[in-house]
Design goal:
Layout (H helix, E strand, L loop, with lengths): L1 H9 L5 H33 L7 E4 H11 L1 H6 L4 E5 L4 E4 L1 H18 L6 E8 L2 E7 L21 H4 L9 H11 L14
Parallel strand pairs: 2-4
Antiparallel strand pairs: 1-3, 4-5
Helix pairs in contact: 1-2, 2-7, 5-7
Amino acid sequence: SVTGYLDLLNQQTTTPEERAVYAKIAYKKSRDLEALLETLFDISKLDLSLKTTEQTTVDVHQLLLQLLEEMYPLISRVNARIDQQILSPLSVVGNGKELARVFENLLSNALRYGDLRQPIEVSAFRRDEKIVIQITNAGPMIQAADVPYLFDMFYTVDQVRNMPTKQTGLGLFIAKTIVERHEGTIDLKQAAGQI
């Protein structure tokens, strides 16, 4: 579509108004493509560094608080509210940057697709030998047929496919890849009005 609109720009029969519209569309499509390429590059880095990722002791409590602080401009811009119950101490051996990417992807999804009239809940606690991190938001139920595929590469549900901004269907795939590399699990649980 980018090259198609650029071809239209080169035609002598187009009006200045049409050229302005075509240029705007081509620019938007090129930005979408740029975002997709960056995400695919991130995925390739994950695959290539599967065995060589640098791991240290990560303070999950501090990591989540820092991420919420860094995301404050976005949270504020959409008038969202975050309720957090992040217990301390919580630490794991892992890659802090990769784990931050997981939580950022999940929070971004909650901000993008959730019903922001209700607060987003972020909780972290220890259950036996495991650390459990939950991000809960209100919103439309995801169809049962979509649930098994949510973490697949490029998969998007109908309400996302129909959004005006193009979504790649890679955020949850990246989150799952990173979590599994850290010998963890990630899943979706739905309750009435929450995802």
